[in-house]
């Protein structure tokens, strides 16, 4: 069962996130390389942006806290995000700065990202851009861990947002979203552990869960993570599915069988679907299957926001017509 004390929203229904929006470029040919010539797909992106858009596409009220510039690519991104059902009223438009860029290619060892985001307008969000009333009137605040290392101003903005949420009974959801190039910064591990301790809901990958706990055995990992503070833990295992633990129930969900075209955004969409299921007060078995289905469907198409994220109806249809076995842990 989902912990009952997490569901006291006082009629609040909005799931919001804080973060940076990006423009992402993906080779039209999935085997294409950034070092080679070739056509690219331009898509709105950014971990928080994908999450917020997935919440909107999956039928829940969604909101975003961030900032963009007046450049044409910023206009492109915010227009796409709006079409996904995201409330963009708390995305500031500032006079100086341009939106960051991300390029991604696929190699035998996984995805390789090339970022052009130093001093990007989105990474410079500060405390002034965090509206306390907007957060306090929301049900859930979600954010990815890489924001804590993106810039000092973004770090302060996230800490302020979490503090407001905790003071007003808003559920805090945290995705570690560890980036190797960022976790090496001084104090990064301490900030990661602080964020885990503040979270009510934690959604790491299996490798991230091992890194945070220092454990290899899944039962020890889950116990250690719960002891750090989170009440709900959802561990993703790529094509092998996920494990979700809460209170006295822990289920291992198999992955859906799919042909992966582009896995970008699968984790963010899984986290979004997890929270949508919690808001609907479904049982754990249905929540896990729904989240797995949404994450799998993203992988079937190239691009992310506006291109690959599934609707609620498509996710339910896929969930009901494809096998996802469950096993108690």
Overview of this structure, please?
- The structure is a single chain.
- This protein has 12 helices and 15 strands.
- It has 329 residues and is an alpha/beta fold.
- It has one domain: UDP-N-acetylmuramoyl-L-alanine:D-glutamate ligase, CATH 3.40.1190.
- The strands form 2 sheets. Strands 1, 4, 5, 6, 9, 10, 11, 12, 13, 14 and 15 form an 11-stranded mixed sheet that branches.
- Strand 12 and strand 13 form a beta hairpin.
- Helix 8 packs across helix 9 and helix 11 packs across helix 12.
- The longest helix has 16 residues.
Topology:
Elements: E1 15-18, E2 22-27, E3 40-45, H1 47-57, E4 62-68, H2 72-83, E5 86-87, E6 91-93, E7 100-107, E8 110-116, H3 132-136, E9 140-144, H4 147-150, H5 152-167, E10 171-175, H6 180-183, H7 188-198, E11 201-202, H8 206-213, H9 218-228, E12 232-236, E13 242-246, E14 249-253, H10 266-279, H11 284-298, H12 312-321, E15 326-328
Parallel strand pairs: 1-4, 1-9, 2-7, 4-5, 4-6, 9-10, 10-11, 11-12
Antiparallel strand pairs: 2-3, 7-8, 12-13, 13-14, 14-15
Overall mean pLDDT stands at 92
Structural shape: globular
Measured on Cα atoms, how large is the radius of gyration?
Answer: 18 Å
Number of strands: 15
Number of domains as seen in the coordinates:
1
CATH fold annotation: UDP-N-acetylmuramoyl-L-alanine:D-glutamate ligase
Supply the CATH superfamily name. Answer: Ribokinase
Based on secondary structure, the structural category is: alpha/beta
Question: What share of the residues does DSSP label as strand, in percent?
Answer: 15-25%
Number of helical segments? 12
pLDDT < 50 stretches: none
């Amino acid at each position: 069962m989902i912990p009952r004390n997490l569901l006291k929203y006082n009629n609040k229904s909005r799931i919001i996130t804080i973060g940076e929006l990006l423009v992402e470029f993906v080779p039209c040919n999935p085997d294409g390389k950034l070092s080679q010539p070739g056509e690219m797909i331009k898509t709105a992106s950014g971990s928080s942006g994908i999450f917020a858009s997935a919440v909107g596409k999956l039928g829940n009220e969604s909101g975003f806290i961030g900032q963009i510039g007046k450049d044409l690519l910023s206009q492109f991104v915010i227009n796409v995000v709006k079409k996904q059902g995201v409330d963009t009223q708390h995305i500031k438009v500032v006079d100086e700065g341009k939106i960051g860029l991300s390029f991604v290619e696929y190699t035998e060892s996984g995805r390789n990202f090339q970022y052009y985001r130093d001093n990007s307008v989105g990474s410079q969000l500060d405390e002034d851009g965090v509206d306390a009333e907007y957060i306090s009137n929301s049900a859930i605040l979600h954010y990815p861990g890489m924001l804590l290392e993106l810039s000092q101003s973004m770090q302060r903005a996230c800490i302020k947002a979490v503090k407001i949420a905790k003071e007003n009974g808003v559920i805090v959801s945290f995705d570690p979203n560890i980036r190797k190039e960022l976790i090496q910064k001084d104090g990064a591990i301490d900030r990661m552990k602080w964020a885990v301790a503040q979270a009510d809901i934690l959604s790491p990958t299996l490798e991230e869960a091992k890194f945070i706990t220092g454990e290899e055995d899944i039962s020890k990992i889950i116990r250690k993570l719960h002891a750090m503070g989170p009440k709900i833990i959802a561990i993703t295992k790529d094509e092998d599915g996920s494990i979700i633990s809460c209170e006295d129930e822990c289920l291992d969900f198999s992955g859906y069988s799919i042909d992966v075209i582009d896995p970008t955004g699968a984790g963010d969409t899984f986290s979004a679907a997890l929270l949508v299921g919690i808001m609907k007060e479904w049982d754990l078995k249905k929540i896990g299957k729904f989240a797995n289905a949404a994450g799998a469907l993203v992988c079937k198409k190239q691009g992310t926001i506006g291109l690959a994220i599934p609707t609620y109806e498509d996710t339910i249809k896929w969930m009901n017509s494809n096998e996802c076995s469950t096993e108690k842990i």
